[in-house]
Every structure is written in C-alpha cells, then in structure tokens.
Amino acid sequence: MSRIDPARLVDPKALLALYPGIKPRTLRYWIENAPARVLQQLDGPDLVVPGNGLGRAIIHKGRVTLIDPELFREWLYEGVVEVEARSA
Asked: What SS3 state is found at 66?
C-alpha cells in the first residue's frame, strides 16, 4: 500500500477535473462514506459499518479535504481486471 504524498494532494474540485465522468455528488458520497461508522441500535449491540476504503487517500484538516490522486486512482480501479482484446 502506498503512502500519501503531500506534494501531489489536490482538493475535490481539482480531482473532479481529472475525472470528468465522476459527478460532484458521487465524490462527496464516497468521501463521506470513507471512514467506518457506528450505528447505534435500540436493542442489542452497536453495528459497525465498514468504510469504502477511500480513507487511505483522504486527509481532513478542519474544513479542508485533500485527496491524493494516485491513491484515489488505485482505489477507483482496484478489483478491475483488464481483458485483452482477442483478434478474430
């Protein structure tokens, strides 16, 4: 796993410029759901909902959110298998 490189951090608006196919509300949803969350149950133990894994690419400091584009790309394409085109 790579580490965050402070020299290449960008804000969400700049990241959206790199990936024009991603809508702002989608990126906002991914950022909000990056960390694990605890849902409190009325009956029984609390339920821990795991994050989506994007947290390794995000830094929050106050109201500022910065994202490492390289780690974001790795997260975005993890599990994607490239298929070679077969010649007919």
From this structure: strand
pLDDT digits 0-9 by tens, 33-80: 999 999 998 998 999 999 999 999 999 999 999 999 999 999 999 877
Q: Answer yes or no: is pLDDT of 82 > 70.
A: no
- State phi, psi for 15 to the nearest 5 degrees: -65, -40
- Report the number of distinct structural domains present in the chain: 1
Largest CA distance in the chain: 60
Determine, yes or no, domain membership for 21. Answer: yes
**Is residue 1 one of the residues assigned to a domain?**
no
Boundaries of domain holding 59: 6-77
Q: What is the DSSP letter of 35?
A: S
**Is 87 among the domain residues?**
no
What pLDDT does 4 receive?
A: 85
In a domain, 20, yes or no: yes
Name the percent of the chain in helix, strand, coil, to the closest 5: 35, 15, 45
